[in-house]
Write a structure and sequence with these properties.
alpha+beta; eight-stranded antiparallel sheet; 17 helices
């Protein structure tokens, strides 16, 4: 049975929020695991599963003093210094801490005979990863840790380039710690100083220059900033409608229309839409009221209005690239079919498909009052993005791209119970060794306004479709699209304006196996190859060739090279659910082993839409 943790009646303008005053940073260095497994015997790789990761150095910087802790008790000795009154007012950041440093800190604290009795940890989890945690003692004192990656969304090396702090990421020493202690300490201290300087810049720009608020993630920072500076009226919440409106919330369009772009001497073109989602948010109205149930005799009544419709859909038979998305329960994918089915859609989709001859029979219909909710937010931050560089430009880009998804945040969340004195009613065991349990709560937040997110993604799909229409009108072929990008064989007009397209690559040859799995041979930088394989390591992708991609095309369908065993630190959830031995490595297998199935593949490697017949 779900528990309710928070209820609010409206998304209201935000009052002043207390900024982060004191911050510190921590970085941990450990023995390495296998980074490049290509060509190794699978049994040799598997031997790295559940292998302990040993810490040999921890560096801590509090804004004034750097402290190094080394040896097998490095983390324990740090915690004994850190868990004092002095640091209770600090927030301590670690970059990628949720995937690495925090797991080491967590398991050292809970497994230590002395520290484990005095303290307990309350982690904040997102997708099985710790994004923050609080250490509690029995006197109700607290110490706060946060992962900086969910805020900054980039590696420390790339952040050093864009933020240009006084200290930059340097090359990791190659020798052992015992033989190169000074080099390792310098490396670790430099990472800490770089992160500290980057976080100070980030907080200053958000709190002072932008007059916003820093949250736990980029999305929460964008939402807090929007509410503080740009939300001028309260928007009522409609929690009881969110589950049905989520049926109209679709992700980006990612499809293969032609699997092989053969070298012909004439280039192909890869275009990106400039800030597609910000453009949508700036140029359209969005719901600002409670939903109002209405009756429509005809779907065309939705024209000029804002809302969501449950309806029967009958498509034309002759569309090569249909418009409406469909959540396919058999393939478990988002597809764009022909045929007839039952679905939920934002009015923007309905208005578009009526012009293409779709037959729409409305059932439940909900209308909203609407306004240009994000116009000021987008225009100000896009202008600043264009006029600035470095850290400021980087942060403006984060704010522009991170806001809309927060409106679709799920209400149901898992809450991990680690306090031995907390009521565990409604929970189930999570890790019996530590006595942890987990329960589902309904965390109702005022920004959970799913109709807004559904409208943003629907309009974004239609923006992409407008370029599909342009290419078809000019007689071009479309090979691939991915949310805000499209590959074709003709040139189309480009510009730097918001919502227009820019040319990313001119292509000699390309193979598109599946969404986010393709190889481009480009004219860029001495005819370089660009390989995209989501989830695979950079080291593995370097070994995959264009010929490997060709061999995976039908009828050969040879996916043998596309299998990688990856060794990485186990996540917090994996450790507890799979009963691993604490801070250890884990071996995972990544593969591309199935034929593309979001559209039907034809003998000439072109594809066509599936036919759905629900009634």
């Amino acid at each position: 049975m779900s528990n309710y943790k928070w209820i609010a009646t409206a998304l209201a303008p935000l009052k002043k929020k207390r900024p982060l005053k004191k911050l510190a940073v921590v970085d941990i260095e450990t023995n390495r695991w296998l980074d490049d497994t290509y060509g190794m015997d699978p049994q040799d790789i598997q031997a790295w599963h559940n292998k302990p990761i040993q810490t040999f150095l921890l560096t801590f910087y509090d804004g004034k003093t750097t402290q190094h802790f080394d040896g097998k008790n490095a983390i324990r000795n740090f915690l004994k210094i850190y868990l004092r009154d002095r640091y209770r007012s600090y927030v301590t950041f670690a970059h990628n801490g949720g995937k690495f440093d925090f797991i080491a800190l967590y398991h050292t604290l809970v497994n230590d005979p002395q520290l484990g009795k005095r303290y307990w940890i309350k982690p904040l989890l997102a997708h099985g990863r710790i994004i923050a945690f609080v250490v509690h003692d029995h006197k109700k004192h607290t110490w706060h840790f946060r992962d900086s990656y969910p805020l900054l969304l980039s590696s420390l090396a790339r952040l050093s380039e864009s933020f240009n702090p006084e200290h930059h990421k340097i090359t990791m020493p190659t020798g052992s710690y015992n033989r190169n202690k000074d080099q390792w300490k310098n490396y670790c201290e430099n990472d800490c100083l770089a992160l500290y300087e980057i976080m100070k810049m980030f907080i200053k720009i958000i709190d002072e220059d932008v007059n916003g608020c820093v949250g736990y993630t980029a999305a929460s920072t964008a939402m807090l900033t929007f509410r503080k500076r740009f939300l001028h009226q309260s928007i009522p919440t409609y929690y009881s409608y969110n589950n049905i409106f989520r049926n109209a919330y679709y992700g980006g369009r990612v499809e293969v229309f032609n699997m092989y772009a053969m070298e012909t001497g004439t280039p192909y073109y890869y275009y990106d839409i400039n800030s597609q989602y910000p453009w949508v948010m700036a140029n359209h109205q969005f719901p600002i009221s409670m939903p109002r149930s209405v009756k429509y005799r005809d779907a065309s009544e939705c024209k000029g209005r804002c809302g969501i419709m449950e309806c029967d859909v009958i498509t034309p038979d002759d569309l090569d690239i249909p418009i409406l998305p469909y959540k396919d329960p058999i393939r478990n994918k988002l597809i764009f079919p022909l045929g007839h089915w039952h679905g939920w859609y934002d009015f923007s989709f309905i208005q578009k498909v009526l012009d293409y001859g779709y037959i729409i029979k409305p059932y439940r219909v909900y209308e909203f009052e609407a306004d240009y909710l994000f116009k000021e937010y987008v225009e100000q931050f896009y202008k600043l993005k264009c006029e600035t560089s470095g850290a400021f430009r980087n942060i403006m880009k984060i704010l522009l791209n991170s806001l809309y998804g927060k409106f679709a945040e799920h209400e149901e969340q898992e809450e991990l119970i680690t306090d031995p004195n907390e009521d565990i009613t409604g929970s189930y065991p999570y890790d019996e060794e530590f006595g942890y349990s987990i329960r589902t709560i309904k965390n109702l937040r005022p920004h959970q306004l799913v109709a807004i997110a559904a409208r943003v993604t629907s309009l974004a799909q239609l923006k992409l479709y407008s370029y599909i229409e342009t290419i078809q009108r000019l007689g071009g072929q479309i090979y691939y699209c991915d949310t805000d990008s499209i590959v074709t064989d003709i040139r189309i007009p480009t510009s730097k304006e918001l919502g227009d397209v820019k040319l990313e690559h001119e292509i000699i040859e390309a193979v598109f196996l599946a969404p986010k799995a393709y190889c481009l041979h480009t004219y860029d930088k001495d005819n370089e190859y660009k390989t995209i394989m989501k989830g695979f390591s950079p080291e593995f992708k370097d070994h995959i060739t264009l010929q490997d991609f060709r061999n995976a095309l039908p009828p050969k369908n040879n996916f043998t090279p596309f299998q990688e065993k990856i060794v990485r630190p186990a996540s917090f959830k994996q450790i507890h659910v799979r009963h691993l031995d604490g801070f250890v490595t884990m071996v995972e297998t990544k593969s591309i082993e199935s034929i593309y199935n979001k559209r039907e593949i034809l003998p000439d490697l072109k594809t066509r839409p599936w036919m759905i017949k629900e009634f």
